Amino acid sequence: MAKSKLITPMGEDYSRWYTDVVTQARLADYSPVKGCMVIRPHGYTLWENMQQALDRMFKETGHQNAYFPLFIPKSFLAKEAEHVEGFAKECAIVTHSRLKTEMVDGKATLIPDPDSKLDEELIVRPTSETIIYHMFAKWVKSYRDLPILMNQWANVVRWEMRTRLFLRTTEFLWQEGHTAHATPEEAEAETRKMLDVYATFAEEFMAVPVLTGRKTDSEKFAGALHTYCIEALMQDNKALQAGTSHNLGQNFAKAFDLKFQDEEGKWRHAYNTSWGVSTRLVGAVIMAHGDDNGLVLPPKIAPIQVVIVPIYRSGDDKDAILAKAAEIRTELTAAGLTVELDDRDKMNPGAKFNEWEMLGVPLRIELGPKDLEKGTVVCARRPDRAKSFEQMSGIAGTVSTILDEIQAQMLETARERRDAATFNVDDYDAFKAKLDDGGGFLLAHWCGSDACEAAVQAETKATIRCITFDAPEEEGACMKCGEKSTRRVHFARAY
């Protein structure tokens, strides 16, 4: 099938391709507020499907949902110095509580009412550690009150200068988990457990293979002891941080006096963790699987899993074919699948095929006069456009099997692509050359110094994406300075 003329080819301009897919597939659009986006129904349903799967996984691990205010007293951020330093340049601030009308050059103009200046300015939530741990301190008195395991689904605002739909916007949707524990061991176990939840979700639902590991100190979350991450590789061989989990130690507990009385009656500060993923995951799915015809969505999170396209010419054919198509839709829906029956008369089948391919529907069922006679349908898979004839009898089981195969194949294809773009590099000149010749994940020795890490980033725009948990010990020399190194780390240019 010819490539869509509505989308810039990926190989011609990857950035433009991505934007075209987002807008043409009706996932999102630009808003009148600079840096913000409007998530359209198709995109929001995709996010909802992700949200529902994650929410179920969070609850299975003992977490409860709560909601905390959008506005945070400015003094709260100042209590944790490293935290405020990390977010100060991104914070939006509320200074007044109302507007008033003022005449300027004969025209009514709205201005902040000087009489409504707030006694304490409020920060529009960039993340919620400060206000949540303030509340935890109010609720926790005894070791019996621990652990606290909470999650919040919310929006946050970080005043970004360079924005891109889903990947980096001033306002975005996310979840942020926050927990409090009696011991450092419990906090560390929680941090790693939730990272595993993210990795499982990315691979089993998004069909995106990820690396799991620890961020370097320069890349960790502001105020954390350690930050762990999942990292994915997109089709342009740039990395994308898809989720993070932070061991906060006692930094925030001490700042907000979050203490508990232990079993011996001694007062101790609690240990905290936080972890989050956002609508950036939608961008990850687009870039990991999409093609020059639009979206390619994994069945487990696709807003529409199956579309049925009836094909007919005469009136007699139409009635019988539409009746059978409706029957198939009912059977598939009863099996728990999300199904669309495209019975629009004013669009030919080819145009319908193109539209549903653009929207990334994993499986298309075609039903024409000959199919009706034979008791078969044509099943067209979105990822590779392979077609097969399938019996109408038992169609729900057949379609479910095909969708499972599509899900598994998408993960395998993405993993093969990532592995083919992962290279060992020992020499700094070779490292720079490889970055400019395709990029990917480059495994290189690093001495552990912030100076070498910063120099590599300044000179190449590549960063250490993570120090993977399964990285084998291997004696070597730092590619930048030549000092001793005990393992390779993953470098890449990234979003």
TrEMBL record:
A Gene Ontology term for the protein's cellular component: cytoplasm
Gene Ontology biological process: prolyl-tRNA aminoacylation
Residue ranges annotated for the Aminoacyl-transfer RNA synthetases class-II family profile domain, each copy included: 40-298
EC class: ligase
EC number: 6.1.1.15
Catalytic activity: tRNA(Pro) + L-proline + ATP = L-prolyl-tRNA(Pro) + AMP + diphosphate
Keywords assigned: Aminoacyl-tRNA synthetase, ATP-binding, Cytoplasm, Ligase, Nucleotide-binding, Protein biosynthesis
Source domain of life: Bacteria
Coiled coil: none
Localization in the cell: Cytoplasm
Gene3D superfamilies: Anticodon-binding domain, Bira Bifunctional Protein, Domain 2, C-terminal domain of ProRS
Classification via SUPFAM superfamilies: C-terminal domain of ProRS (SSF64586), Class II aaRS ABD-related (SSF52954), Class II aaRS and biotin synthetases (SSF55681)
Entry's family note: Belongs to the class-II aminoacyl-tRNA synthetase family. ProS type 3 subfamily.
Record's subunit section: Homodimer.
Description of its domains: Consists of three domains: the N-terminal catalytic domain, the anticodon-binding domain and the C-terminal extension.
Protein name: Proline--tRNA ligase
Organism: Candidatus Polarisedimenticola svalbardensis
